[in-house]
Amino acid sequence: MPDAPADAAKRRAVAPVLCYPAERLPRPDPGRMDAVLSDLTPVDSLRVAPRDAAAIRVPKGHVLRILSVEGPQVGDLNLFAAANLAERFYSGKTRALHGTHLGTGDRMWSCLPYLRPMATVVADSLDWYGTDAWGARVHDVIGTRCDPYTGRLLSGADYHHCCHSNLTRALAQATGLGRVAAEAHVHDVLNVFMCTGFTADRGRYFMKASPVRPGDHFDLLAEIDLLAVLSACPGGDCGTEHSSDTAACHPLEMEVLAPSAAVLAAWREPPVSGYDRSHGV
After folding, report:
1. Is the pLDDT score of 243 beyond 80?
2. Which distant-in-sequence residues (6+ apart) come within 8 Å of 201 by Cβ?
3. Is residue 219 part of a domain?
4. How many domains does the structure of the chain reveal?
């Protein structure tokens, strides 16, 4: 390691600046959120089997509820615009705008060139968890998803029920795409219920047993028509490992809840970015 320069302390003492000041973000309308939540009717549901994935369509203005039903279990979520798979969840920009973990009032943003809110977190039964002694929080947009390529890199073995593969199979089934074509659309996820952080010494990504229990739920308001694909991670509560056939795993439930007819009649979906895409040419 090279010797520190004479002004090392001064350089380290420079105050940080937020890349994207939160006060400049368009905020969700609290009145609209209250109106949605005041009158919800279940209209669709499906169960996601352990170490597998499933897809469900969520019309704009409806709520997608991800529900723990049998035991501690985390889920890896992909979101797509229902009519355009090219518009999908952008975890990196969402992380830059809202932080490493999402909570009530935060939004899931779509990729470039669209960059608009796809969904808004409107309820979270784990909001109480906050930040623990290790700096861990829940619902992260840090981890990319467990995948067979990293698995092979680290272990030399193939594992076919990691979240990346689960999402690929479920998206192919939901859209009629072939396996290879579907895989190209699978993207970095929102890790629902997952408890994660970074180590203090080297900033390495870590996971720990999720605090989720049966009955806990995470609610997303669909700002646009969505195709949601969720994998019940083979790591179970991710307290020991992922990409494993030995961890205790449980199903997850996805429910679609409709607000009142008046809310739906007044719904206006957010427009895509107004940037003209000229890029200075």
Report:
1. no
2. none
3. no
4. 1
Which residue range(s) make up the domain with 52?
Answer: 28-213+224-265
**196 in a domain, yes or no?**
yes
In whole angstroms, give the CA distance from residue 88 to residue 115.
9
Contact residues for 164 (Cβ-Cβ < 8 A; gap 6+): 145, 146, 147, 148, 149, 183, 186
**What does the pLDDT average to over 257-268?**
96
Taking the chain, what is the end-to-end CA distance rounded to the nearest angstrom?
45
pLDDT tens, residue by residue, 22-53? 888 888 888 999 999 999 999 999 999 999 99
H or E stretch including 97?
A: helix 91-98
Give one word for 51, left, alpha or beta, with left for phi > 0 and alpha for psi -120 to 50: left
**Is there a domain that residue 18 lies in?**
no
Q: Strands across the sheet with 217-222, in order?
A: 41-48, 252-258, 63-68, 217-222, 117-124, 107-109
> Quick check: is 186 in a domain?
yes
Amino acid (one-letter) located at 128? W
Task: Please state whether the predicted TM-score (pTM) of the whole model is above 0.70.
Answer: yes
- pLDDT of 129 reads 98
pLDDT reported for residue 93: 97
Strand partners, 124: 218
**Chain centre distance of CA 49:** 18
Using one digit for the tens of pLDDT, what is the confidence trace for 125-178?
999 999 999 999 999 999 899 999 999 999 999 999 999 999 999 999 999 999
β pairing state of 252-258 and 217-222: unpaired
Tokens of 229: 């694909």
Segments in 127-269 forming alpha helices (H):
148-155, 163-175, 179-183, 261-265
